[in-house]
Specification:
The protein is built from five helices and five strands. With 175 residues, it is an alpha/beta fold. Helix 3 links the parallel strand 3 and strand 4. Helix 3 runs parallel beside helix 4. The radius of gyration is 19 Å and the shape is globular. The structure holds zinc ion.
Length: 175
């Protein structure tokens, strides 16, 4: 008997980097921040997802009382920066297992406050989409922290047609 009946060649539409960055992008889509939506996902060596997060207001408090505006000339207590929890911090806070040795896929290069957290939980790599604040001193501090902690970091460039492919797929699964 021919054991190869009904076999068809198949490939995945996504490699692991693309798969997890799209998950981080999906998490960012959930953020209410009108200006900067960031998402991340932590992954272990078996390519299993450990935790996800996006930037949001403090869990469990009445966020209608807190500002989302990014005007840095306003008093600090009237700025979002005083209250927002970053995506990496949220993912770390909500992780159910150790993140030691994990990779972090994140849509925006981590700020120096998150770099402290990433180093403390001992992740091994950051994969990011954008590093738009690379000229700032805070960004240099972040890289210093990652370098001193032997955490690798690399930019991921998504192929141009991936969003259209995903859009076509989504359209095909919507009844
Ligand atoms: Zn941060």
């Amino acid at each position: 008997m021919d054991s190869k009946v009904n076999f068809v060649p198949v490939t995945s539409n996504l490699n692991w980097d693309e798969y997890f960055m799209l998950q981080a992008m999906m998490a960012s889509f959930k953020s209410k921040d009108p200006n900067t939506k960031v998402g991340c996902v932590f992954v272990d060596d078996n390519n299993h997802q450990l935790s996800m997060g996006y930037n949001g207001q403090i869990a469990g408090i009445d966020e209608s009382q807190l500002p989302w505006g990014n005007d840095k000339t306003a008093p600090l207590d009237q700025q979002k920066y005083a209250y927002v929890v970053h995506s990496e911090a949220n993912a770390i806070l909500h992780a159910k297992a150790s993140l030691d040795g994990s990779r972090c896929y994140v849509t925006l290069f981590p700020c120096h406050e998150c770099a402290k957290l990433l180093a403390t939980v001992k992740i091994k790599e950051v994969i990011y989409l954008s590093d738009k604040y690379s000229s700032t001193v805070e960004n240099q501090i972040s890289k210093r922290i990652l370098d001193m902690s032997n955490i690798k970091y690399r930019e991921l460039t998504l192929r141009k047609d991936i969003v259209q492919d995903l859009c076509d797929h989504f359209q095909s699964v919507i009844p």
